[in-house]
Design brief:
The chain has 266 residues and is α+β, with helices and mostly antiparallel strands. The chain is built from 6 helices and 10 strands, in the order H-H-E-E-E-H-H-E-E-E-E-E-E-E-H-H.
Length: 266
């Protein structure tokens, strides 16, 4: 039996292939990084988002008159106990209940909401203390999110005065293009022992260049009675020229609309 040594033979082509593959991998990585950098825009800072949001809210046009459909009932039931149609005229600072069906409990709740809304709209002090601004809230950046196919910045809202019942502890959706608020959702403090907690959701829209409260839902947990729910949908709005008084209070009206659901079921 003859034993022979087997020596591996190194071929230059092996080194060439290895070097070439490394070069290709580096080129691919560079290409991916370049495309990613070109195709994405860095998100603005939290301060920038909040400042743009505050500016957008102060500059957008608002309706002078709205009509809403309010529905009141149990959270766990599809039955509506009360159905109330109401008009709010911000030129005169008055509201009118136009149509009522069902029990009278819903009417009382709706009147309380509208009285609060008109009261805030008429007072610059109340408007300032309930606005979604850095004066009243600590904001935290939660990331980006999609709502109904649109991109939004999602911010956390923490009231600077947690015991103030008009302030919402929750989240706000800010449009990435217009910086207008699209949704506010969270809990509010109850001023009544009978109401354990209140959860609200406010949805806004900007039809025809206006900014309006399009829908609202408030759910209150009432001791011994269970959860009660109040919803509202805007059925119409108008934007005729406002009077001088209404024009001066336009900013207060915007704030009032954001705050109208907070005292809904207290």
């Amino acid at each position: 039996m003859v034993k022979s040594d087997q020596t591996s033979v190194f071929h230059p082509s092996i080194l060439y292939v290895e070097v070439a593959m490394r070069a290709i991998i580096r080129m691919l990585l560079l290409l991916v990084l370049t495309v990613t950098a070109q195709g994405s825009n860095p998100a603005p800072s939290l301060t920038s988002i909040v400042e743009h949001m505050e500016r957008a809210q102060s500059e957008i046009s608002i309706p002078n008159h709205v009509t809403r459909d309010y529905r009141f009932g149990r959270q766990d039931s599809a039955k509506v106990d009360s159905d109330v149609f109401a008009d709010v005229d911000f030129r005169t600072g008055k509201y009118t209940v136009k149509k009522v069906s069902g029990s009278g409990a819903g009417v009382q709740v709706v009147k309380r909401i509208l009285e609060q809304e008109v009261s805030i709209a008429a007072s610059s002090q109340k408007s300032r203390l309930t606005a979604v601004t850095q004066e009243n809230y600590v904001f935290s950046y939660l990331g980006e999110t999609i709502l109904d196919g649109q991109s939004y910045y999602l911010l956390r809202l923490d009231p600077k005065r947690p015991k103030q019942p008009e302030l919402i502890s929750g989240q706000v959706w800010v449009d990435q293009q217009s910086f207008l608020i699209r949704r506010i959702e969270g809990g509010v403090k109850s001023s009544s022992w009978w109401v354990k907690k209140i959860h609200v959701r406010l949805d806004f829209a900007s039809p025809r260049g206006m900014w309006v409260l399009n829908g609202m839902e408030a759910v209150a947990s009432v001791r011994y009675l269970g959860d009660r729910k109040l919803t509202s949908q805007m059925s119409s709005f108008s934007s005729e020229a406002a009077s001088v008084v209404a024009a001066k209070s336009a900013k207060r009206v915007r704030t009032a609309r954001r705050s109208l659901a907070v005292s809904a079921l207290k």
